[in-house]
Design a protein that fits this description.
This protein is an alpha/beta fold. The protein contains six helices and 24 strands. It has helices at 80-83, 174-181, 206-218, 234-245, 332-345, 389-410, and strands spanning 4-8, 12-14, 20-24, 31-39, 45-53, 60-61, 86-87, 103-111, 120-129, 136-142, 145-151, 158-164, 185-189, 204-205, 222-232, 249-255, 266-268, 271-273, 284-287, 290-292, 318-324, 351-356, 373-375, 382-384. A hairpin with a 2-residue loop joins strand 19 (284-287) and strand 20. The protein is globular, with a radius of gyration of 23 Å.
Length: 411
Amino acid sequence: MVPSIRLSPATRSLFDEPLAIAVQGLGPRQQVTLRTSLRDEKGELFQACARYEAGDDGELDLARCPALPGGSFSGLEPMGLLWALQPQKPFWYMAKKDVQRPFLLQLEVFEGHGEPPGRLLAQAQHERAFLRDGVQRVPVRDGRIRATLFLPPGEDTFPGIIDIHGYVGGLFEHRASLLANHGFATLALAYFKYEDLPQEPTELHLEYFEEAVNYMLQHPQVKGPGVGLLGYSKGANLSLAMAAFLKNITAVASLNGLMANIVLPLCYNDKTIPPLPIDEQQVKVIDSNILDCSDILIDPFQAPDNQSLIPLEKAEGQLLFIVGQDDHITKSEYHATEACKYLQARGKENFQILSYPGTGHCIDPPFFPLYPIGNHPILHKWAIWGGELKAYSKAQVYAWSQIQAFFNKYL
């Protein structure tokens, strides 16, 4: 038999879905190296490889055969060739701007365990898509709002979620598009550095985000009476502020977000919350060009009457804090723990924490590559974001299922 790769689903799957990988037609106990490759929208290459030995029958099923030492991972990891993808260019983040076009995954099987790999025995291509058939992608230019709405298939009403990204600017649609596949009407909301929004804002206004809430609640396919918020980093920080100040926020999932305002002054009506001060003396230089900034934010819980704290006790919705224990940007586990103590002391019980070891500041949906070192959003220098490959891959899968369960329960 000629070796061949068997995939399930065969030609196309959603990016956050598992992919079953097997090789058939090998010799008994034949040693092979499997390699996955994927180019992002900028043409940058991501790769992972693993060493395997076929069974006595010449079959190699990644769900049953452990990877041998020497590759990107080892052990029984059916999805290892996807979660272990790493950029060939240092510190490169896999962004997905155009969710209407799938990523193309290349799979190859090589003879032996050599470096470089031996003869090519089999290859296959597979599309990793962001939109299920029937999901609508609707650009939104409503009043000041600049966003994209993703609607699940059908004419029903769906639980509504607003997805707010971190402090990098632009419009990120990857999370919102994937959530729509799971039955949520999801609005990916830009808030600066996009179209006619401010390029370099000096302050942020909650009224803008309030417009987005009202837009969702007035949409005929969004099931009320409230909406959910999914925020990451600064977006999580904004989501917590929205929960404190705005009506009709039923549930907030905060990915490494703080209860204290950060980066820019935050205004609502006649109130302004100043950003948490930064102490640049606390920056640690790891090597000539990489920083550890985990201690640069002043601790808002140690300063009485800190003006940067968001009055989260006013929030009526449910709060889910998802934190990485290895977050080197904001010490999010400490902040979430203190936020919950703060709420508890004020008689609140509307919160829970999910805390993940080996997980850094960046928490993306499943199978996005680990991003352990990146551009610091405030200092604009290379900095440690944290995270460890295998632990992070498990946290991604578990957190993603918990986010969906949380919104299904409360929306």
